[in-house]
Amino acid sequence: MNQSDQKELANPFRKLNFLVVDDFENFRLSMRQMLRSCGADKIELVAHATPAIQYCAYNHVDVVLCDYNLGEGKNGQNILEELRYRKLLKHSSLFLMVTAETSKEMVMGAREYQPDAYLTKPINRAVLEKRLGALIRQRNALLPITREIDRENYPEAISLCLDMLPKQPRYKTWLMKTLGELYYQVGDMAHAQKVYDEVLGQRELSWARLGRCRVLAANQKEDQAIAELKTLIEKHPDYMEAYDLLAQVMETQGKTQPAQQVLERASRHSPNALLRHKHLAELADANQDIDTASEAWRQTVSLGSYSVHDHQDHYLALAQSLSDLSEGDTGDQGASKANEAFNILSKMEKRFPDDEQLPLKSRIVQCRLHAGQGHQAKAEKLLNELSSEIDELPELGADLGLDYAKTLFRMGRDQQAKELLGQLASQYEDDNSILQKIEGLLDEPVGFRQKIEARGFNQEGIKAFEAGDLHAAVTAFNQALNIVPDHAALNLNLVQVLLKQYEQQPENRSLLDTCQKRLARLESLPEQHRQYRRYQALSRKLKGLMT
């Protein structure tokens, strides 16, 4: 070992670049003095988030000491979130959250982005040197591995981990955790599971159990992963990564309702995680739980005020859900939701002025809001203006087209909406997610409350048919079709029941006439629709019976 290495071991602070972020000047100066007394000499002081992020963008920083509360604007969590997202910190860099606040909300929210440690104010030199010195020594010992991870040279990082395990037993936990993650990253699930099982064989650690569950899910052993994740959450209810993975695995299995419930519980535990609120909102939208969706979108928008994840789509989704909730409710509650939606759309346009299509998207929703509140003249005027603008667009994207079609249906321009959806179906014939949305609009171009009511009648009809009560099935399907007369599956369900009745009453030719009228409503059904083959089969069967 040369003299320089000996000095570095004796004084691990000496060669590192430090950044102190705190809005109080006295604390910044005090922290600089303590760091200097520990041997540091490269120390940058900033008061707020913007200069902190800018400094990290143009300079290598080894250690960030950041206060949580920084006054108006981004807080420490927002800084850590953005530095991680933009990859402005290397894997070898340390981020310490320094704060006088110890509320559960703050700690849980900041922990989502994995700071290396917390330091609670007031801080003295002895505590700083002991806590930070230990982290720096670990950082220096593991530097060859973190350098390879930064270079995305994962095989070499794995080799270094394996080589260091017998030599650095004090860092075994970090090395095993990193090794499991690296094996997972390169797709070597067998070795990843071996690492996690080895750790769990010695001690039950949350990160190892989570890693094992992630491997189980990747190996399509979802039921086993779900069972182990539920047990993990019961033992460690604040371990948020387990909730996220559990919801993800459930969603993969198509269990969207239980997945939503998992994220609702997680959001109560850690209410400051924007991306989790967004995922919850998307799941609730898919489950037609518009009340939960709107609240989750509201939280997503609120948390986005100073977040790198802020996006215009969050504002638009909130306005759309509020539009659905206020539809047809002209009382105080409905008007309040509609006004909130108008305000959100206005805020969105001001916040994201560079998106040229955003005002157009905004007015498409505004048109539905006016119509839903009974302001028909305003809605018609706005729709006429929109039609002219949309006709001039060189290309209508899927999201814009779908929302415009929804507005056309709401304004009674059904044929125009169906033609537009037919064009979109041809344009996106290879995109199943878009095709499903097109089908949903073709089948149920009504408000969400009406959709729920129609689906209830449909379920009643299916149960009655399966029980052999054809009369009750016909009644239930007709009630559903009174709400959504062009719903493909409902029309075909009714035709199927009527044909079954005709088998029992061959003298009743009116049953076939009704079938013919129902199938005629589906003549413009796109070939891409999932019910198209069934429509063709029933059409052929009816034709044979009528001849």
From TrEMBL:
Cross-referenced SMART domains: REC (SM00448), TPR (SM00028)
Domain Response regulatory: 17-136
Protein name: Tetratricopeptide (TPR) repeat protein
TPR repeat residues: 454-487
Biological classification of the source: Bacteria, Pseudomonadati, Pseudomonadota, Gammaproteobacteria, Pseudomonadales
Any one of the GO BP annotations: phosphorelay signal transduction system
One Pfam family from the record: Response_reg
Membrane-crossing residue ranges in chain numbering: none
Superkingdom: Bacteria
